[in-house]
Automatic annotation (TrEMBL):
The keyword Isomerase applies. This is Ribulose-phosphate 3-epimerase. A divalent metal cation binds at residues 31, 33, 64, 173. It catalyses: D-ribulose 5-phosphate = D-xylulose 5-phosphate. It comes from Thermosipho affectus. Catalyzes the reversible epimerization of D-ribulose 5-phosphate to D-xylulose 5-phosphate.
Length: 214
């Protein structure tokens, strides 16, 4: 089943409540990018924003830590009743420790990798994760163009499910929209994270009815 996840980076933050209310019936979850201006060249609010979003909606929340030393922040995130924490392979030398800690607290753990990072770097932790997020843009900003080579990564990850006898999720984030969503799903992705594709989409109802449940 394909899930749609709204990346609030593309929302109008001055009207965050109405932005979320406008899309919440058409999506399955919200994606919050926490950026530190160091791991990625952009800054966002961390915990106060998560708290604000939790007060607005009951949608499940995926927190994507685009920060160096993500393990410094996992304890604090446990206070927020979130569905998932996504951690970059490039951001810590202790990825196994970070994943284990997240899972011990009954939160889904996803590992993610930048477009320039080969899949082989995450292979060792595949047996421990609930899912893999393929970054299909260089992280930091909404509204960038989908990097076509990401399709190969999605296909390989899909094949690895058999290799490892696992049924982990495959999420994709960056430049996904109405025109390429079908290709991304056919390659094996089951969670489509979209900023512009959801918050700036005048025909979200149509996209949602086409993709959800597929
Ligand atoms: O991680 C991201 C970019 O770094 C975001 O999730 C981003 O908001 C995706 O937006 P879009 O779908 O418009 O590319």
């Amino acid at each position: 089943m394909t899930k749609l996840s709204g990346s609030i980076l593309a929302a109008d933050f001055l009207n965050l409540k109405s932005e979320i209310k406008r899309v919440e019936n058409y999506i399955d979850e919200l994606h919050i990018d926490v950026m530190d201006g160091h791991f990625v060249p952009n800054l966002t609010f961390g915990f106060p924003l998560i708290k604000a979003v939790k007060n607005i909606t009951d949608l499940p929340i995926d927190v994507h830590l685009m920060v160096t030393n993500p393990e410094f922040h996992i304890d604090k995130l446990l206070d927020f009743d979130i569905q998932r924490i996504t951690v970059h392979i490039e951001s810590t030398v202790h990825i196994h420790r970070a994943i284990t800690k997240i899972k011990e607290n009954n939160i889904e753990a996803f590992v993610t990798l930048n477009p320039g990072t080969p899949l082989v770097l995450i292979e060792e932790v595949i047996p421990y994760v609930d899912g893999v997020l393929v970054m299909s843009v260089n992280p930091g900003f909404s509204g960038q163009k989908f990097i076509a080579k990401s399709i190969e990564k999605i296909k390989t990850l899909n094949n690895w499910k058999q290799k490892y006898g696992m049924n982990y999720s495959i999420a994709v984030d960056g430049g996904v929209n109405s025109s390429n969503a079908d290709v991304v799903v056919s390659a094996g992705a089951n969670i489509l994270i979209m900023g512009y594709g959801i918050f700036k989409n005048p025909d979200l109802e149509n996209l949602s009815s086409q993709l959800r449940g597929k």
